[in-house]
Design brief:
Keywords: Membrane, Transmembrane, Transmembrane helix
Radius of gyration: 29 Å
Strand content: 5-15%
InterPro entries: Alkaline_phosphatase_core_sf, Sulfatase_N
Helix content: 40-55%
Protein name: Sulfatase N-terminal domain-containing protein
Domain Sulfatase N-terminal: 288-497
Pfam families: Sulfatase
Largest sheet: 9 strands, mixed
Length: 565
């Protein structure tokens, strides 16, 4: 319908039903005002969705009204549209904040995080399928366009209302400004200690501008830090002398965080699994020590945790990741490769495309999801069950290694959200090409049902962690020998729906070895004995591990500077 024809219908309706027309007009005006207030008062975190967040007097519409009242007609409409667009952008950033706080435990970084939207789309595709992902993306795009259009129309409507009765608009603006100044000067509060006078949006914009400046400055400093490496010039024959002849596995368990060992709804089952597997390992002559690491990421972006652990640099955003992987930083796999005494292998079943970072890390061979021979179904995001991943590693590398010991990095993905459907542990000789998992996947739970249920999501998360731990530790019990050394850890905590609001970024880290000399070298770390770090075990930043590890297992630890815990 054309605007002209719509205008004729609207005029006819007003003449025929004047009372109803006035009611509709007032309702639309009230809705426009409510939308403006909502944009200004909307929190960026679901934890703050409380009544007191919305019963405040914001200063921004008072300042906006004063500006619009002094402008001539045409500039006034242009500024009104710009204000509406600005409010729409504010809403979009706050909605992104809500999503990032839910999944990653932090707000949206307007400089660094746009690239993560591509990863979000890929996650939707893996979880919902191609059609579902396309539908979700289209819905989001339409919603964003609608927000911009509606907010601009809302501000224009309120501006025209002020223009029709300028005298009343001026008095109202003066009264509102006086009320705000009084509330601010007296520190008046309502519903607890929340001040009535609000300048949230001004503070929000100032905060984001400060973050932009800090981010740009930080990125420049990080580019210089990448080239500062105490181990860059350590001779190869002095690296990792305490592990020569050992088969070393570094294994990341997706979302294996502190919540798995301390949340009352999750920990009992995980503790029981670790106790059972610990006893099986002890019977085979293995021992373990465990501590805590603070991950550089939370709820997702696992590659940031991986790179932080392997490079000894704090990599908490995508720009840092690109910067470091474009350089020549010595990584843990790279240190093993530099000695010439190990074959280095990466097993990354979550990677479905070419992965040039494999060369940066120093792997002789990388196996991604296309190289592992899997013929079974995906389990939501996870391309294959962890038990299959480990079976493929055994078949392709461990069982037929040549004259060199093996250093491997293995990423286990079965505990990746949304934790449904989940695989089950089966006999190692039953795994085959993975076809056996088809009925297991088909009988599994629907990810949407699990993800939206606050109780069930914790239960299924716990099951996924128990499955991953059992798969890994059973593998060591079955295939490990006196030369096996396993380092396993979580890459980050699970999202806030599972770990809780304001949860720490801590993850467990454990070293398992058959040779007691391996664990003797880390006696001074203060780690707890066994597969579970105690509450009093030390907590290090994840970027501290590389230097500590290279120092503990190097021939001359004094050749490198070890960071403080």
């Amino acid at each position: 319908m054309s605007p002209l024809r719509f205008g004729k219908y609207a005029e006819a309706f007003r003449r025929k039903y004047p009372v109803a027309a006035r009611g509709v007009s007032w309702g639309i005006t009230a809705l426009a005002a409510a939308l403006v207030l909502l944009a200004l008062l909307l929190p960026g975190n679901l934890a703050y969705f409380e009544a007191r967040s919305f019963v405040r007097v914001p200063v921004e519409p008072i300042l906006g009204a004063a500006l619009l009242l002094v402008l001539p007609r045409r500039p006034r409409l242009v500024v009104a549209v710009l204000i509406g667009m600005g409010l729409a952008a504010l809403v979009v950033v706050k909605l992104l904040d809500i999503g990032f706080n839910m999944f990653l435990g932090r707000g949206f970084n307007v400089v660094l995080d746009w690239g993560l939207l591509d990863d979000a789309e890929s996650y939707l595709k893996d979880t919902l399928g191609g059609a579902g992902a396309v539908g979700a993306v289209v819905a989001v795009v339409l919603l964003v366009l609608a927000v911009f259009a509606v907010m601009a129309l809302a501000v224009v409507r309120l501006t025209r209302l002020m223009d029709r009765d300028r005298e009343r608009a001026v008095r109202g603006t003066v009264v509102a400004g006086t009320v705000w100044l009084t509330c601010s000067a007296l520190g008046l509060t309502l519903l607890g200690d929340t001040p009535l006078a609000s300048r949230n949006t001004i503070g929000f914009v100032q905060d984001r501008w400060g973050r932009v400046q800090a981010t740009l400055k930080d990125e420049a400093a990080f580019a210089e830090d990448v080239n500062k490496d105490a181990f860059a010039d350590v001779p190869a024959d002095r690296l990792l002398t305490g592990l020569r002849g050992k088969d070393v596995m570094i294994t990341f368990i997706e979302s294996y965080g502190r919540a798995a060992l301390e949340d009352p709804a999750i920990a009992p089952g995980v503790d029981a699994t670790l106790d059972e597997e610990g006893e099986a390992l002890r019977e085979e002559g293995f021992a373990a020590k465990s501590g805590w690491l603070t991950s550089a990421t939370y709820g997702g972006s696992s590659w940031l945790g991986h790179s932080t652990f392997l490079t000894g640099l704090w990599i908490d955003n995508q720009n840092r990741y690109r910067t470091v992987t474009a350089g020549r930083r010595l990584t843990l796999p790279g240190a093993f490769a530099r000695t010439g005494d190990w074959r280095t292998v990466g097993v990354v079943p979550g990677v479905q495309y070419n992965w040039p970072e494999g060369d940066f890390y120093g792997f002789d061979k990388v196996y991604d999801s296309r190289d592992l021979g899997y013929r079974g179904p995906k389990f939501s995001w996870s391309t294959m069950p962890d038990q299959y991943t480990l079976t493929a590693f055994e078949r392709l590398e461990a069982a037929k290694k040549g004259g060199k010991p093996l250093m491997s990095e293995i990423v286990l993905t079965s505990s990746h959200q949304p934790w449904a459907p989940l695989p089950k542990t089966i006999g190692w000789d039953e795994v085959g090409d993975g076809s056996v998992y088809k009925p297991i996947q088909k009988a599994g739970k629907d990810p949407a049902d699990v993800f939206t249920d606050p109780v069930e999501v914790k239960e299924e998360y716990a099951k996924s962690i128990r499955y991953s731990l059992r798969s890994l530790l059973d593998y060591v019990t079955k295939y490990g020998d006196e030369d096996t050394v396993l380092v396993f850890l979580g890459d980050h905590q699970p999202m806030a729906r599972v770990s809780g609001n304001r949860a720490s970024h801590d993850v467990p880290v454990t070293i398992v070895a058959h040779d007691p000399k391996v664990l003797d070298r880390i006696d001074d770390w203060g780690w707890s004995d066994g597969l579970k770090p105690g509450a009093d075990a030390p907590v290090w930043r994840m970027d501290a591990f590389r230097d500590r590890f290279l120092t503990a297992y190097g021939q001359e630890p004094s050749a490198a500077e070890s960071p403080a815990p």
